[in-house]
Amino acid sequence: MLWSLPPAGGGPATVTATARMDYVRPLRRSNGMMISVRDLRKQFGSTTAVDGLSFEVQRGEVVGFLGPNGAGKTTTIRVLTCFHPASSGDVRVAGFDVRTQPLEVRKNIGYLPENVPLYPDLRVEEYLRYRAALKGVPRKQRQSNVERAMERAGVLDVRNKLVGHVSRGYRQRTGLADAMVANPPILILDEPTSGLDPNQRRRIKALVKELAQEHTILFSSHILAEVQDVSSRILVIHRGRMRADGTADQLVAQSTERALMVEAHAPAAALQQALVALPFLRGATAEDVGDGIARLRAQVDPLGDPRDATMAALAQRGIVVRELRLDMPTLEEFFYRVTEGADRAEEGVA
């Protein structure tokens, strides 16, 4: 099953023209659509890594890209960044085709891979100046861009250290500074907090929120709480196919795992009888917990909210409510349900 919601709208396109062949500033041709993936397929021999994947990312969105190991996330990201050619499908970044216009695509993205390739014998600032030059940042702007990227990524205090001598966390942040140094309109971050301690992860989350004011961001992470904190929208893929698309709240709200829990001053049989006919409820079971109190738990249909009807039904029978709540599944539970849970359901049917 695919949970799908329409993406947020974007603003008008900004077109920047330049006659120079080297990179001056990102070229922009999209009308609010920064990433467009249509029926993407990627095969490695007889293995299908991505199977008919389609999604869009609008200007200004922060999109979390989720999936278990082997789901096709990194392969998709490598197609978007022109590291792998697509086997079939249409993929455009900032309006440019990744197959026929890879240079224009790369001018519009900053990419942080999960395992950051760095030059260990360069100092952090030297490495970033070198990368800025490779990306065509004009000489007059180069130092200011490097300073800004180092400050944002939090590597100013190790700017004069050799890249090979700093911690894994600082190497990850140096890679993030590299992604930002040319100030591209799109950032693609693959596990940006990998190897960071809790304080560093918190700083990166705050940075992603800040960057969202100027950049469109697609990022992959295994830490679902981080994705939920910073994303305006979440994509979940599994076995190379899209399984869910929407905000965290929207995805969780559509889950069938929601449950109503009621505690009331009444016998269990009376409590269950009072609520058995209510809409949206399924599988209601009640038990006595002592002191004249019964507890009832029932599954709630997607998009249904029976709380008002529950209170009215119990008040009509004179039953005093001690506690009533609607338990929502977490994003982690939803993720399990549409990935491993879906696999187990398919195996059961087979």
Describe this structure in words.
The structure is a single chain. The protein folds into two domains: 3-253, P-loop containing nucleotide triphosphate hydrolases (Rossmann fold); 259-327, Alpha-Beta Plaits (2-Layer Sandwich), CATH 3.30.70.100. Helix content is 33%, strand content 28%. Helix 3 packs across helix 4, helix 4 (139-153) packs across helix 5 and helix 11 (331-338) packs parallel to helix 12. The chain has 350 residues and is α/β, with parallel strands linked by helices. It is elongated, with a radius of gyration of 25 Å. The chain is built from twelve helices and 15 strands. A seven-stranded mixed beta sheet has the order 1-11-10-4-9-8-7, sandwiched between helices. A four-stranded antiparallel beta sheet has the order 3-2-5-6.
